[in-house]
Amino acid sequence: MATESLPASWSLTGAPNARDLGGLVGVDGRPVRRGMLIRASGLGRLVDDDLHTLGTLRVACVIDLRSAGEIEVAPPDRLVGEPRVLHIPVHDPEHPVFTYVSAVMLGHDLSAYEALAREGTTGAMEAIYRWFVAGPRARESFSRAVHAIAEPDHLPVLYHCSAGKDRTGWLTAILLTALGVDRDAIRADYLRTNELADGVNDAILGAMLVRRPGLDLAAVRPVLEARAAYLDAAYDEVDRLFGGMDGYLRDGLGVNAATVTALRDRLLE
What we know:
Blueprint: E1 19-20, E2 37-40, H1 48-57, E3 61-64, H2 68-73, E4 84-87, H3 96-106, H4 114-134, H5 136-149, E5 157-160, H6 167-178, H7 183-196, H8 198-211, H9 217-224, H10 228-242, H11 245-252, H12 257-267
Parallel strand pairs: 2-5, 3-4, 3-5
Antiparallel strand pairs: 1-2
Helix pairs in contact: 3-4, 4-5, 4-9, 4-10, 6-7, 10-11
């Protein structure tokens, strides 16, 4: 499972939000092993040089958190070798907040979403993060992902959604919490998305404005950014429903002490 030829630092041109969580300090001062836990955005726009980097990472398993609809309209992930691919969607097409956010991104009339529109896009994003914690579908999917990552044959693992920000961000928070990483360090990694994906977001906004002149970019930008308030909304929901992350892991996700021990044994130095 070692990645002996892994460079000290690396990036993916076609997935600039990708990064290795190695080096973050977990329980008892033990750092996360480098090259074992990779978070990313969709891999469909990787360039050829990226494939060399991906091959160096020797990924054994790719966990795709996107819905079937997202996968259908996106370029297929470009992968190296034959990693096991697990599709574990974190999505609820019947939840009104998802259709509202889609309407915002498409520049549609929002009159059908009066209550959500009053809260604004930021409020809708906070509602999504609360759903990550409270929604049975979300809990089932995050639980499946955590248990899959605890399997030794699935390491090194790369997990991603579309932008590598929200679903990927919350799964990262779950994993790093289980590994004993400090919450401030988790927050810093979460917000790092804004730095890594800034150019991509500007390009998205520019393209949207060309297609739909007059689009309210101020309403769209909160969907593209990682904001501390979103992560706090999830943590607040965890406290409300489960009394803290320990209870959420145990009772919300069914991640027992044996699974936490397995994660720490395999992912920490």
